[in-house]
């Protein structure tokens, strides 16, 4: 009997702004109990990209600098983000700082418009995206599932969109499945990464089964009792969800459909002698 081969990551690699990324899991680096725990989680996740909040870490002076050095040592691609920015000008300045610090023109663009939900300010987001794209940045905008906002962001120069699943840190999964399905179908050829609100591996698998290209998460791993083990669980769920999507999921039905057809099946009358 042949040995069972280990499961390999699903399908061909993801390409973002012309760069091939082996893993469809993107991992945040905030809220871990320690930098060492964070590093272990990144390694366990097999993530090819990690996000780093420039404003938060820069505010920590020498501690923040050591953290940046640790991130650079992980051997993964860094996607700096503009978390905490509430105006286009703040976001643009933070992105420029990130480019100098990490030597990358990739930036996850956040312009927050509501303090309770951390919902992005779509007007400010489009304004900042246009300015950064013009300045040579490869922008990954954190947005909602709004189709019109998506069109505006693409017109502003974005080649990737990052719609939320639910508000940041809520762990509620995909709160508006109908709108997310519509977004996926409407922008069939645009890389779409679910960002925020993912709380369980099953949420990540569902996003991949819907045809999304990748998932970005942070809190669900960082807050786990065993972050490295949880990171592995998410990596497996994302591989499974993508494999299922590529294999072709069955469609839901309103009525039962027997797996064993009854047509042509012989029946015996047990009451006859």
Question: Could you characterize the architecture of this molecule?
Answer:
By secondary structure, the protein is of the alpha/beta class. The chain has ten helices and ten strands. The chain has helices at residues 35-45, 54-58, 61-73, 88-102, 122-134, 147-155, 177-186, 201-209, 219-222, 227-247; strands at 14-16, 19-21, 25-28, 49-53, 77-81, 106-109, 138-143, 162-163, 193-195, 214-217.
Radius of gyration over C-alpha positions, nearest whole angstrom = 22 Å
Give the helix/strand class. Answer: alpha/beta
Proportion in helices = 40-55%
Q: Which residues form runs of ≥5 with pLDDT under 50? A: 1-9
Q: Give the strand order of the largest sheet, numbering strands 1, 2, ... along the chain.
A: 5-4-3-10-9
Q: Which shape, going by the Cα principal axes?
A: globular
Number of strands: 10
Intertermini distance: 48 Å
Main sheet overview: 5 strands, parallel
Mean pLDDT: 89
| H-E string | EEEHEHHEHEHEHEHEHEHH
Approximately what portion of the residues adopt beta-strand conformation? 5-15%
How is this structure best summarized?
The chain has ten helices and ten strands. It has 273 residues and is α/β, with parallel strands linked by helices.
